[in-house]
Amino acid sequence: MLTIKALNKTYANGVQALKDVHLQIPTGLYGLLGPNGAGKSSLMRTIATLQEPDSGSIHFDGMDVLQDKEGLRRQLGYLPQDFGVYPKVSAEDLLNHFAVLKGLTQRAERKEMVDGLLQQTNLWEARKRKLGTFSGGMRQRFGIAQALLGAPRLVIVDEPTAGLDPDERNRFLNLLAEIGEQVVVMLSTHIVEDVTDLCPRMAMIVKGEVLLQGEPQAAIELLRDKVWRKRISKAALPEYQQRFNVLSSRLVAGQPQINVHCESQPDEGFVQVEPDLEDVYFLKIRASQSSAAASL
Ligand code: ADP
Asked: Ligand 1 atom closest to Cα of 51?
């Protein structure tokens, strides 16, 4: 269990990236969902002991992370957002090299771990290929393989699905869910679907603040009977946006289809729909924007 209490961080330029963040993160795949600039990387880098918070505490299974950074690093697997690889080296050779750096000095033990990880990440067939020839999805799976060297008990992956096609994304998320059966896996993303299906628990973070945490399904349940949908003309969209709490608008066959949050039918022509996590996400983002506007 990873426990974060009252974490704050303001950068030298005055940006408050983390505002009194409290989180309880159990074993399993944990989704940290938020738009770009929300503070996800700041939080993950802080947990990974790559930067210091201004205040607050982080404990991992009783260990005080901010006091015992080396202790945490021994248990940590980290895939940063901008994970670069050497394009001319094969997957097998680079993973072996990382394994040496991780302190796996016993040759046989190292080979067993490297081979096992290449298999687990479905890169065994491609192990002799140069990393420069890998697709985005393969590179990310290689990134996970290196993060898992040394059997970490805490795995942090920062926006790993950005830029992957749907097939590769699914494969990658399934791999993370599998790993999450044993250890804490923290995944940050701005893609709602990454969290909906596979994360038993999650948090939404916007402008450094945790707006919601818990089970995705419980958050969705709060919106039951309160999400209404209508197809409208493009010209009518501004009026609807003014009159109603429009959560989202998407073009269906060239015509806007809006989801509105309302206790009862907002207007004629609206039909009630099953809420989903995207509705929750947009509602939270809208609420945080209007509370920011109200405090101006
Ligand atoms: P996310 O990962 O959710 O996109 P970040 O943690 O990268 O968010 O950024 C949160 C906010 O902090 C943003 O406004 C970003 O511009 C700012 N920020 C991030 N890193 C730094 C830094 N090293 N110095 C100054 N501002 C930063």
From this structure: 23
Residue in the block written with tokens 């699914």: 170
Q: Which domains does the chain have, with CATH numbers?
A: 2-216 (3.40.50.300), 221-295 (3.30.70)
Q: What is the pLDDT of residues 202-211, one digit of tens each?
A: 999 999 999 9
Residue with tokens 């990393």: 131
Segment (H or E) for 8: strand 2-10
15-31 average pLDDT score: 96
Residues 6+ apart with CB under 8 A from 268: none
**Top mutation candidate among 8, 9, 15 for ligand 1, by most atoms within 8 Å of CB:** 15
- Is the pLDDT at 51 greater than 70, yes or no? yes
For the cut 60, the answer to whether the pLDDT of residue 189 exceeds it is yes
The pLDDT score that the predictor gives to residue 279 is 95
Could you give the C-alpha distances from 100 to 75, 86, 92, 94, 116, in angstroms and in order? 16, 16, 12, 10, 16
